[in-house]
Write a structure and sequence with these properties.
It contains 4 helices and 3 strands; from the N terminus they run H-H-E-E-H-E-H. The protein has 120 residues and is of the alpha+beta class. The longest helix has 9 residues. It is globular and about 40 Å long.
Length: 120
C-alpha cells in the first residue's frame, strides 16, 4: 500500500483551467446555464466550478463543488453540468467530478453573484 503524502507547500488547491483552449469560453458559457435550484445565480458565478480542463482531443473534465455536502441536488448537478457541455460543437467527451477540497466559501463568488445576492 502506498502512502499519500501531503501536498507540497505552494501547490494550488485548485488546478488551473485550460483558459487558452478554443473551447474554453463556450464551456464557461454552458456552465453559466446551470443553476442551483435554491440560489438564483448560475453555478459558474457562484464559484462552484473549480477547474475546466480541456485536452488536445477536446475531452472536457470539470472539477466542481457544491455549496454544502448535504446539498439536495448533489447527485444531480454534475449530470446537469455534463448535459450543458456535451452538445457544444467540438466537444468529444465530458467528465464532471465533485470535490469537497477546498471547501466552497462565499469569497469564491464573482462580484456579479455577490451583487445579485445582496452581499455588496
Amino acid at each position: 500500500m502506498t502512502e499519500q503524502s501531503e501536498p507540497l507547500e505552494g501547490t494550488p488547491l485548485i488546478a488551473p483551467s485550460s483558459t487558452g483552449h478554443p473551447l474554453y469560453d463556450n464551456v464557461v458559457e454552458a456552465c453559466r446555464t446551470v443553476y442551483d435550484p435554491e440560489i438564483p445565480v448560475n453555478i459558474y458565478d457562484l464559484g462552484l466550478i473549480y477547474t475546466i480542463d480541456i485536452s488536445d482531443e477536446n475531452e472536457v473534465k470539470v472539477v466542481m463543488t457544491l455549496t454544502a455536502p448535504g446539498c439536495p441536488v448533489a447527485g444531480d448537478m454534475p449530470g446537469w453540468v455534463a448535459e450543458a457541455i456535451e452538445p457544444l460543437d467540438g466537444v468529444k467527451q465530458v467528465d464532471v467530478a465533485l470535490t469537497w477540497e477546498p471547501q466552497w466559501g462565499m469569497d469564491m463568488m464573482s462580484d456579479e453573484a455577490r451583487l445579485e445576492l445582496g452581499f455588496m
